[in-house]
Amino acid sequence: MKTVIVTGSTSGIGLGIAENFAINGFNVVLNGLGDEKEIETTRARLDTLGAGEVTFHGANMLKPDEIADLVKTTEEKFGAIDILVPNAGIQHVEKIEDFPPAKWDAIIGINLSSAFHLIRAAMPGMKERKFGRVISIASAHGLVASPYKSAYVAAKHGMLGLIKTVALEGAEFGVTANAICPGYVETPLVAGQIADTAKARGMSEEDVVSEVILKAQPTKQFVQVGQIAALALYLASEQAAQITGAALPMDGGWTAQ
Ligand code: NAD
Fold it and tell me: Quick one: 3-184+223-252 is in which CATH superfamily?
């Protein structure tokens, strides 16, 4: 039975990925911030979905020693880590001259450095067992920029560099590393924004989606969490052994333009 750690899996994309791995019989280690009781309810629900066991570790992605403990605890509990999904991320949108340095540090820390600390700690075990899958959730913003997102765009571009390097270092050890680069993903957070924007601008919700939020996304449709989760599951499989060092857009054509 294989074991996967998904960082930032108490909500959104990470939760969807964790759920899909649980359904498919993996041991899953959840991670993220949030209300303790709600997290336990989620953990218990996921635990019933498949043959594997679902646990939670509350490592703060800004703290390298807690990330090291996440890896150590998982290896002790399940004997091995087979798949890492560095997914935790935050955003801040502001022009660069006003961008708070503390926000820059937090975004680089959570969205990029945490992946380095996670992979660094888990790589020896993966190399030794000659199997490993690193599947990071980057972004279309790992491939192209948008204004006012300096830290996020820098972190996501950095993530692609990290993934390519890990792919080369792991290539002869059965360890692959890839980045999924989603466009706009339909999460509860985005759904709320649609209703608010429609009210504020006096537009229909459909027009808000196509004319405001998804202006850059040619399909004019959101990426679904389940679509990302399906790609992550495939990248974890034996069939995906020769896909490594890749940045895989799932963005409705955004970065084709
Ligand atoms: P989300 O806010 O729903 O989830 C973020 C997760 O990260 C949560 O579980 C949160 O608790 C966790 N997290 C935040 N700070 C943390 C910390 N210090 N330590 C541990 N966990 C922490 O967001 P989401 O939309 O699901 O985003 C997940 C990833 O996907 C992010 O890396 C994001 O950049 C990326 N992404 C999102 C979109 C989108 O449109 N939603 C598009 C492209 C890429």
Answer: NAD(P)-binding Rossmann-like Domain (3.40.50.720)
